[in-house]
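Hi Prof. W.,

I finally got the Alpha/beta hydrolase prediction working! I wasn't sure whether to trim anything, so I left the full sequence exactly as given:
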Amino acid sequence: MKTILLLLNLLIPPVLFAQPDTLSITLENVQYPYPVNFININAEGQDLRMAYMDVAPASPNGKTIMLLHGKNFAGYYWTDVIKALSEKGYRVIVPDQPGFGKSSKAFIHYSFHLLAKFNKQLLDSLGIQKTSVLGHSMGGMLATRFALQYPDRVSKLLLENPIGFEDYRTFVPYITTEEQYMTELKTTPASVRKYYESSYFPVWKPEYDYLVKIGAGVAKSADFPRYAKVSAMTFTMIYEQPVVYEFSNLKVPVVLFIGLEDKTIVGKALLSKEEQSRHGQYKVLGKQIASRISGSKLIEFEGVGHIPHIQIPQKFISSLTANL
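And this is what came out:
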């Protein structure tokens, strides 16, 4: 029996353990790969909690890296990256942004400026003065804002298929937060699976199923309307707060890691097929944005979609560690 359990631990992502079909909107019943801590924060008179993992290396190299997750994810999907970086001697900080993961789902005005401030507050509480910042998807927009807002705190900015390479306001029809909320309320396990399978990877594999299980499990919660409202609010944040015009203002070293098969567009369902084909082309956008950032480095992955660190973990990690 012990041998069987050991094999299961090797084969199944740790986040799957103790995970029922219905999940709470703060993921209390999802086991993260490392211990989760909380910092108290305040927004608009509300006392909130921000979850984070702080993973110490066995043999420290004196350097820190902070990992910022995408919109439909949280810290749990960084497992392989955390392990590899920790083994290389890095202290790894992995926050769940307010409104996501195990953090509070508050009704506040979400902004990248505010989230950047909360992440600075987290670093301050941990006594970390400088860190590399890796942002994926929405986390790339936040990482960019953080580097613009607090350049003295960033040793290197690392962007993994970030959204925000385009100003979505210029071609995606505007909808109100309430209209987006109505759309979010229609989420079902089937719709989550369809979206994840069609949007994130060129070819779906069984090892990606845990991502669907978490997204679908939250949709079954009795508190899902609150989760859906917050999701709508952060959709509005992304739509209304572009960073694309400010990449040339970055004053820190920048490395872009781009899966060339990515075709992500925020609000894609609001576009015609013809409009969809004209945007979200990361094989073009990566080069365009890299050309605007003085001294930046562009690393491209053929045949890779929106989440390189999950689709090609070893290749991504090798590229990441070689450029830290």
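The longest helix spans residues 224-240. Does that look reasonable to you?

Thanks,
D.
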